[in-house]
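Standup notes
- DV: blocked on the single-chain target, sequence here:
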Amino acid sequence: MSTLKVPVLIVGGGGSGLAASVFLSGHGVDHLLVERRADTSRLPKAHYVNQRTMGIFRQHGLADDVAERAASPEQFGTVRWQTTLTGPGPLDGRVIHEMDGFGGGALRERYEAAGPALPAKLPQLRLEPVLRRHAEERNPGHVRFGHELVSLTENGDGEDVTAEIRCVETGGVTTVTARYVIAADAGRTVGPALGVRMEGLPALFDATTAYFSADLSAWWTGGSVITWFLNPYRPDLSSALIEMGPTWGKHCEEWGLHLPLAGIDRTDEKAVTGRIREVLGLPDLELTLHDVTSWSVEAVLAERYRHGRAFLVGDAAHRQPPAVGLGLNSGIQDAHNLAWKLAGVLSGRAGEDLLDTYEAERRPVGQANLGWAMSAAAHHQVVIDAAVGLGPHVPPERRTPAFFSYFSPTPVGAAQRARAAEIFATHRGECQALDVETGFAYEQGAVVPDGSRPPARAPLGDEYRPTTRPGHLLPHAWAERDGRRVSTHDLVGPDAGFVLITGADGEAWTEAAATAAEKLSVPVTVVRIGADGEGAEYTDADGTWARLRGTDGAGAGGALLVRPDQHVAWRAAGAAADPAEALTGALALVLGHRAP
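- DV (later): unblocked, structure below
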């Protein structure tokens, strides 16, 4: 039996675990990742990488590799409802409604204003290998697939934990001692070992997804992140079709179909492929069935995100319906929040109390995302069907006439379509939820509140209002230096340092940052952004930064302290009587020191 000692042990090599490994490497933290599977996901599963996650990938040098393989908003930024894919009848192949979603179409300008990176579509089958390659390159020899956690024990002194890790192929066991554990195992091992209780609804309903390859180019127009089929003849054939790449658009090769299999044995390949053909209206379609998965849709949240020296991220901490695509994205954002805090504590720059802020910050976000996904899923199941005249109150014999009425070239049909369009527009709470994806804030934790109120949030989550208020994401604006344009987000690098943003007249804050950095042994980089001709290192490229900085209390003479995860930690609305004392005190509070 071999032994190994590392500061951090990551259990789980899915999206959240691999991302945590990349982030820890960026912060210079030694760690070991173990994953019981021999390889990354063999199924596409989650496929939407939202804007905030892409911004995090940009910070850690992953965004270009992801974007190279992914569909862009131009290629997936539509949500579509139609009757069937094709067929001989007058109601077959009819588009019921289309709307822009996820940064596509008319939404592009709004998303570009929110951040330097746009959303992408890349299923886990293709995303996880990118993350794994970067994790292995940045932490050679310590990313071990085919290794499973056998036992986990917190040592009596409470200073570390001991884990037994077994090689699946050889059976050899390694004893690992670690200061901290990140549970990224979807709740399979660490949570049960610690007695973690998941609160909520563990089994809302069961769903089935078929993954297959087929050439649909003769009937597929492409461009949609998901196409919902509302079958005009049989409700049991209504479903949803999703492109899974690797080519995007008309010539996509692989697909995911949320498949109704009532009365069909999912292990009967002939019966399943027959049902796929029925749903698509293509009785002679040649296809290759890769897998059929049945899964339980849950709405559960861990009672605690921290259990002693273990921290839960991703599906180990929260599991919700797939609506809005918040699951994997939330998990990667969990890891991003946690990594810099572990780095701060392990380096001795931060107090142990900083680690308690992980739960204080991320659990409310997890709870909000779970509720939003539940609401969006319920809305789609009930309200959208009702928009075209369907629903539990409509008897089966009225289904087909309802569709004929909807498409009728009469004033009544036009009125029905107009009413439906207004109802479909409420779906923006799912497919245009930019504020849900980006506008979340940390009200308690590693922040110094300034007593201000957050900006009003749009009820449907589709309007993101950037702010420099502590706890919020640093607003995105373009700045220029030596002919190169960068986002304000780019000013916060992948290491564990803080950034102090001030104006052209920020000499006093520059001196204060040097004092605070020396007293607390924490790197603080000062960035001055000013108008052209003011002599700052960075020039406000188009006036956006001055507008965002000045609209909510962070005016001239003030400063913003930004955390390594790009969230605002503290702000001074104007010049301080003693900038060094103010900044040092704020930074000490953020880092979990009980006194400066």
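- Follow-up: The mean pLDDT is 94.
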